[in-house]
Task: structure prediction
Amino acid sequence: MGYRRTQKVKKAKSLNFDWETEEERLKRFMKIPPQKKMQWLEEMRLFLLKSSTPKIRKIRQRLRESR
Result:
């Protein structure tokens, strides 16, 4: 799984497919500021909280308390 396909849409009729190696992907990720990464993590945490069922929330709560 060393490659990932990204799709860039220039016009409705033409598509340009670029390939990105795992190393290129990691380098791109390293350029993202830590504050932006933390913001993304917080947004994902809130989304998961809102979209989880009550059963899943209880499981997560028990896991947090068992640490």
